[in-house]
Amino acid sequence: MGDEPIFYAEGKAYLRVGDEDRQMSAKEIEKRILAKIIVRWDSKVSEKNVREVNEDVLKKYVDEGRKAGRITFFYTNKKAVLNKLELIKGDKLLNSGMILFSDNKNLEVQSAVFAGSKKNTFLDIKDKTGNLFDLLYFSENYIKEHINWRADLTTGTRIEVPEIPIRAISEALVNSFCHRDYTAPESNKVAVYKDRIEIWNPGDFPSEFKPLDFIKNDLPSILRNPKIAKILYYNKKIEKWGSGLKRIYDECLTNNVKVEFKVLKYGFSVVMYRKKIEVKKISELEKYNLNQRQEKVISYLCEHNKITTKEYAKFMDVSLITAKRDLLDLKNKGLINYEGSSKTGYYVLNDTVNDTVNDTVNEV
Question: For position 313, which CATH number holds?
Answer without folding.
Answer: 1.10.10.10
